[in-house]
Amino acid sequence: MDQMQNIEGMPQSDKQNGPVVGIIVVIIVLAIGGYYLFAQLQAQKAERDAAEIQQLQGDVTSNSNDIVDIQADIQAQQNELDALDAQTDADLQQLNAQINTQ
Asked: For 16-31, how does the pLDDT look when each residue is reduced to its tens digit (9 = 90+)?
C-alpha cells in the first residue's frame, strides 16, 4: 500500500505536515495582525502628541504676524523662562543647603 501512495505522488509524510503548516499559517496571521495593531497604536499616539504640542504652542503664542503681537509673545515666553530660572535657582539653593547640613 505504501508503494501505491508513492506511485500516485502523495507521500505518507504529507499527512503529518498538515497540522504543522496550519500552525505556521495561524502564527503568520497573528503576527501580521499584531503588526497592524502596533502600527495603528503608534499612529494614534503620534496624532495625540502632535495635537498636544500644537495646543501647548497655541497657549503660549498667537498666530498673528504683527510686530506688536510677536513682541508680546516673546515677552511672555521670556517671563515664563525667568520664572522657571528663579524656581531652578531656588531649588538648587535648597539642595545645597540640604547637602551642607548633612
From this structure: 788 889 999 999 999 9
Grid coordinates given for 80:
515664563
Give the 3-state DSSP-derived string for 26-57, with helices as H, strands as E and coil as C: HHHHHHHHHHHHHHHHHHHHHHHHHHHHHHHH
Q: Positive or negative CA dihedral for 79, 85, 86, 91?
A: positive
Q: What is the DSSP letter of 12?
A: T
Q: Using CA atoms, how far apart are residues 102 and 41, in angstroms rounded to an integer?
A: 48
> Would you say the pTM of this structure is higher than 0.70?
no
Instruction: Please check whether residue 49 is in contact with residue 41, taking contact to mean a CB–CB distance below 8 angstroms.
Output: no
